[in-house]
From TrEMBL:
InterPro entries: Chap_CCT_epsi, Chaperone_TCP-1, Chaperonin_TCP-1_CS, Cpn60/GroEL/TCP-1, GroEL-like_apical_dom_sf, GROEL-like_equatorial_sf, TCP-1-like_intermed_sf, TCP-1_chaperonin. GO terms for cellular component: chaperonin-containing T-complex. PANTHER family: CHAPERONIN. GO terms for molecular function: ATP binding; ATP hydrolysis activity; ATP-dependent protein folding chaperone; unfolded protein binding. Keywords: ATP-binding, Chaperone, Cytoplasm, Nucleotide-binding. This is T-complex protein 1 subunit epsilon.
């Protein structure tokens, strides 16, 4: 902002700029700045911490306009908190990047990052330079990740069990969520959805082929996976059939997907259209009628059974469609139109003249579903066996909050399954992987010379926070749990022992099938360490525009 800048000249005639009001800017610097950052991060983490794990608690968030969200998802909690502090905002972005890249582990990454910052604060107070700490943490993270990679199990080695494994991993991720009572149903939905759209050879999952749709009403158990696309629309005329099946002798329902409106083109006159007599009005009406008929003829000629249209049409056109036995849907959004095109392998047609048999989509049937007594309807475009896949996870629940949280939970477990399809290596959950890494890093600490050994030990302690928090949230003694796990892991040379959050009577996460994808865990370590370095490097916060008083 140069409005309060003045160009002046010094005694040698050299120009320089004076910027006024700099004194009004708030500044914090040096150690004080770092401490205040870390304290801010700590207060954010303390809110998030109690949500970690299967026994984690939910939060209720109330937006300024009174809308209520109930959630257990770290990224969602953080994104809705109105944080003033700049560093706290960085934590929000941290959980968002974990969410964008991996989709799960958004609570864990924040807990880990703030534990690292806590540890860093202690080292700073001991007089160690922040950059040295950051460097030490980087090295320690490398050791941790190497160990993590070494302790993975590849679950795709046994093809017949892979599916089962996906299911179990999906179930773990749902453990702490509102849907935990309907675990199996949601885990199955996640696995079926991902396997339906995945490209097995390329180990790729195109996420946009999976649509999440929710509707208030019914219960979570009534949620289902729909083979195809479901849209929040109904047929344009109440007398149209509620279900369209293939014509006799045909294998599928033919769908015309249109982006052109059923609307006559405006008569091409340069002048204003004045209608001064009944005849003229009649003429215009006839012109419109003819145009409608022409359009409908194009559709008929192509052989379509159903018309799906991006635009609306008026009663006149609607009536003609009904007369011509062409069930139609209007005002279908662009994104949905695309999904329908993918699902039915049809083309989106921009002009009636362009319609042809080849451009029509094909599906098994198109039908309306009605909900409860509300006469609330949606439309399903169901795919046949031969279609390329698009699936919709359709979630029911008794109120909007539950539906929304169930959607988020399902999204997380879809991500877990996708991650495993992409990289089938898993590590053990319940803090088991963190304990293994912590042991490795502290062993390595003894081999470090100089300052790094402090950083290594601190890093190991930060990793311990995860199993300790899980224990605490499950009503177990954190320190006792941690020491037991460590000694068990060391004695038996394995990384399967974690916190028995649900009180199943076993610490063996392999037996309990509590697994987390390796790439997710690795990303947590990388992102948390990176963020910590970033905050440690800040030594000046300049908040412009605010008065310092
Ligand atoms: P995030 O948002 O980070 O994924 P969650 O609340 O989903 O947080 O908790 C995930 C943590 O809980 C992971 O460390 C996972 O291993 C652990 N966990 C999940 N289910 C269980 C279980 N049944 N027993 C022990 N730990 C579990």
């Amino acid at each position: 902002d140069l409005s309060n800048a003045i160009v002046a000249q010094d005694e040698m005639g050299r120009p320089f700029i004076i910027v006024r009001d700099q004194g009004n800017k708030q500044r914090q610097h040096g150690l004080e700045a770092k401490k205040s950052h870390i304290l801010a991060a700590r207060s954010v983490a303390s809110i998030i911490k109690t949500s970690l794990g299967p026994r984690g608690l939910d939060k209720i968030l109330i937006s300024p306009d009174g809308e209520i969200t109930i959630t257990n998802d770290g990224a969602t909690i953080l994104s809705q908190m109105e944080l003033e502090n700049e560093v706290a905002k960085l934590l929000v972005q941290l959980s968002k990047s974990q969410d964008d890249e991996i989709g799960d582990g958004t609570t864990g990454v924040v807990v880990l990052a703030s534990a690292l910052l806590d540890q860093a604060l202690e080292l700073i107070e001991k007089g160690i330079h922040p950059i040295k700490i950051a460097n030490g943490f980087d090295e320690a993270a490398k050791v941790a990740i190497r160990k993590l990679e070494g302790s993975t199990d590849d679950v795709a080695l046994n093809k017949s069990e892979f599916h089962e494994y996906l299911f179990k991993a999906a179930k773990t991720s749902l453990g702490s969520k509102i849907v935990s009572k309907t675990h199996d149903k949601f885990a199955n939905m996640a696995v079926d959805a991902v396997t339906a759209v995945m490209d097995e050879e390329r180990k790729d999952v195109q996420f946009d082929l999976i649509k999440l749709e929710g509707r208030v009403g019914g219960s979570l158990e009534e949620s289902s996976l729909i083979n195809g696309v479901i849209i929040d629309k109904d047929f344009s005329h109440p007398q149209m059939p509620k279900q369209v099946l293939p014509k006799e002798g045909e294998t599928g329902v033919k769908v015309a997907i249109l982006t052109c409106p059923f609307e006559p083109p405006k008569p091409k006159t340069k002048h204003k259209l004045d209608i001064s007599s009944v005849e003229e009005y009649q003429k215009l009406q006839n012109y419109e009628q003819d145009k409608f008929k022409e359009m409908i003829q194009y559709v008929k000629d192509s052989g379509a059974d159903v018309v799906i249209c991006q635009w609306g049409f008026d009663d006149e056109a609607n009536h003609l469609l009904l007369q011509n036995k062409l069930p139609a849907v209007r005002w279908v959004g662009g994104q949905e139109l695309e999904l329908i095109a993918i699902a039915t392998e049809g083309r989106i047609v921009p002009r009636f003249q362009d319609l042809s048999k080849e451009k029509l989509g094909t599906c098994k049937r198109v039908y309306e579903v009605e909900f409860g007594t509300t006469r609330d309807r949606m439309l399903v475009v169901e795919q046949g066996a031969t279609n390329s896949k698009t699936v919709t996870c359709f979630i029911r629940g008794s109120n909007k909050m539950i539906v929304d949280e169930a959607k988020r939970a399902l999204h997380d477990s879809l991500c877990v399954v996708r991650n495993l399809v992409k990289d089938s290596r898993v590590v053990y959950g319940g803090g088991a992987a963190e304990v293994t890494m912590s042991i490795a890093v502290s062993e390595e600490a003894d081999r470090q010379k100089g300052i790094d050994q402090y950083a290594f030990r601190a890093f190991a302690q930060a990793l311990d926070t995860i199993p300790m928090t899980l224990a605490e949230n499950s009503g177990l003694d954190p320190i006792e749990t941690l020491t037991t796990l460590k000694s068990k892991q060391i004695k038996e040379h394995t990384s399967v022992f974690g916190v028995d959050c649900l009180g199943k009577g076993s610490n063996n996460m392999k037996e309990l099938f509590v697994v987390d994808p390796f790439i997710g865990k690795k990303q947590q370590i990388l992102l948390a360490t990176q963020l910590c370095r970033m905050i440690l490097k800040i030594d000046n916060v300049i908040i412009s525009g605010k008065d310092a008083y």
